[in-house]
Write a structure and sequence with these properties.
It is a single chain. The protein has 236 residues and is of the alpha/beta class. The chain is built from 7 helices and 10 strands. The chain has a single domain, classed as P-loop containing nucleotide triphosphate hydrolases (Rossmann fold, 3-Layer(aba) Sandwich), CATH 3.40.50. It starts with 5 loop residues before the first strand and ends with a helix.
Length: 236
């Protein structure tokens, strides 16, 4: 169930790369809210600011101006160490290229966020294996990434993103390298697992085939959010 209280609130958010004549204004006064229990998609043409926005939301990048509150924290007020701790505790990431460590097994890859939080290795791998069971590949726990298909690697990435029970999960083009059927399965897994217990899921995507899985779709263009609609409204 979607909450009425936003866990993400951006107001007049700006971000510029470079200086002088070479400056590129990536975000131009973003206004956006996202709610607990919601799957929000960010869509729009390449270069419109989608990846910059999720990087700011997850505290990987600092905004230049405006306000960005995530999980009741003012990101601009946090120190570098506080941001690192905030990400480790509260945010899960699913990357376009999976970003699995090739020398670790699937279970060891999933266990990484738990090890960062100083969970004992045996307990971390056990919980990671349970998470792989939840996403349907428990039998692959001992396999290396090179021994897995693209869809299986994406499931490992999803398990890693949610194993530490973050309140916010951020995904960058999670289905771009997958065929349509596998991409749909991935979105179903994300909805079923990432949105449990009132978590929020923000997905950057160009893949219009997965739009129906969103609760709302924020259309971006030229560094701004130009509209926020439900999938049924966008298709009209």
């Amino acid at each position: 169930m979607v909450s009425l209280d936003p866990i993400i609130r951006c107001s007049k958010l700006t971000k510029t790369y470079g200086q002088g004549e070479s400056a590129v204004q990536a975000l131009r006064g973003i206004e956006l809210e996202a709610f607990a229990g919601e799957l929000l998609m960010l869509v729009g043409p390449s270069g419109c600011g989608k990846t910059t926005l999720i990087s700011v939301l997850s505290s990987l990048l600092d905004a230049d101006g405006g306000e960005c509150r995530v999980l009741e924290r003012d990101l601009r007020s946090l120190s570098a160490a506080e941001k690192t701790a905030f990400r480790a505790r509260s945010i899960g990431f699913v990357f376009q290229a999976f970003n699995l460590i090739p020398t670790l097994t699937a279970a060891e890859n999933v266990a990484v966020p738990l090890l960062i939080q100083d969970m004992p290795r045996r307990a971390a791998v056990r919980r990671a294996t349970e998470m792989l069971e939840r996403v349907g590949i428990g039998d692959k726990a001992g396999k290396l990434p090179s021994q897995l298909s693209g869809g299986q690697q994406q499931r490992v990435a999803i398990a890693r993103a949610i194993v530490h029970e973050p309140r916010l999960v951020v995904c960058d083009e999670p289905t771009s390298a997958l065929d349509h059927q596998t991409g749909e399965r991935v979105l179903k897994l994300l909805r079923e697992n990432a949105l449990r217990d009132g978590r929020t899921l923000v997905i950057v995507t160009h893949d219009h085939r997965i739009f129906p899985y969103a609760d709302r779709i924020a259309q971006m263009d030229d560094g701004r959010v130009v509209s926020v609609q439900r999938p049924s409204e966008k298709s009209q």
